[in-house]
Amino acid sequence: MRSLLFVPGDSRKKLDKALASGADVLLIDLEDSVDVTAKEEARRVTSAFVAEHRAKTDRPRLYVRVNGLTTGLTDADLDGVMPAAPDGVVLPKTVGGADAAHLGAKLAVREAEYGLEDGATRILAIATENAAGVFALGTFAGASHRLMGIAWGGEDLSADLGAEANRGEDGAYTDPYRLARSLTLLGAAAAGVDAVDSVFTNFRDMAGLEAECRQARRDGFVAKMAIHPAQVPVINEAFTPSADAIARAQAVIEAFKAHPGAGVVGVNGEMLDRPHLLRAERLLGRAGRI
């Protein structure tokens, strides 16, 4: 998983176009991009789309972003789309592990009701869209076996904080959002799940997107959300391990295999220890999944 593309759930035309975007995951949206008067139609369109493509092998993973747990709309969203068996559900405005566990219980009931495999529906939590969510980022470990990733977002958070903007004049995030980003990375690592970087809203600035992808990959994020199909190729390239990186990781693993029990090995004149081995194994694991 490298790229996760948001698509409005009430537009069959945009959903069909998104299939050809090259995104690893489609985040079919029933929340922010769908007007309150169109929620029921969005559930119908989304369910039909997922049902039509679910059995295909050459497709992106299909996740549905439901409305948050405090809206009163979550159950109707799940009742509308779970019969189609989406690969996962995106929970916006997640406040820690308790919310992930709450959603997991709702999914378990519907999997049983609709004859789906128990535990098959994964959860991606968007966990920094309010201040309470930021403070709860350390509570995801062990909350749900369905949890596959934690993402962060700065747009809703800026509204919750009453901020004038979330980026400075240089285009970089200001301090509150850098903190939320860092805590998301740490929270995901503590929970043993993927860390997913936020959207880059200027979809015409490909250079800026590419730079932000590089920074995210450097720090430990493994994927990034997108708001426009044109962003997908940039994100995929940035989060695909290069041939040089794969070769280096293989060399590190082979060096430790050649010296079982060693705490430190030498690779190309550099002394490396066990954390380097773990990093190499994770990189090859991501490359294999891609």
Summarize the topology:
Layout: E1 3-8, H1 12-19, E2 25-29, H2 39-53, E3 61-65, H3 74-81, E4 88-91, H4 96-113, E5 122-126, H5 131-135, E6 147-151, H6 155-161, H7 175-191, E7 194-197, H8 206-219, E8 223-226, H9 232-239, H10 243-258, E9 264-267, E10 270-273, H11 274-289
Parallel strand pairs: 1-2, 1-8, 2-3, 3-4, 4-5, 5-6, 6-7, 7-8
Antiparallel strand pairs: 9-10
Largest sheet, order of strands side by side?
1-2-3-4-5-6-7-8
Mean pLDDT across every amino acid position: 93
| SSE-based structural type | alpha/beta
Q: Please give the CATH architecture of the largest domain.
A: Alpha-Beta Barrel
Please provide the ordered H/E string of secondary-structure elements. Answer: EHEHEHEHEHEHHEHEHHEEH
What's the CATH superfamily of the largest domain, by name?
Answer: Phosphoenolpyruvate-binding domains
Q: Helical proportion? A: 40-55%
Care to describe what's here?
By secondary structure, this protein is α/β, with parallel strands linked by helices. It has two domains: 3-239, TIM Barrel (Alpha-Beta Barrel); 243-289, no CATH class. The chain has helices at 12-19, 39-53, 74-81, 96-113, 131-135, 155-161, 175-191, 206-219, 232-239, 243-258, 274-289; strands spanning 3-8, 25-29, 61-65, 88-91, 122-126, 147-151, 194-197, 223-226, 264-267, 270-273. The strands form two sheets. An eight-stranded parallel β-barrel has the order 1-2-3-4-5-6-7-8, surrounded by six helices. It has a two-stranded antiparallel ribbon with strand order 9-10. The mean pLDDT is 93.
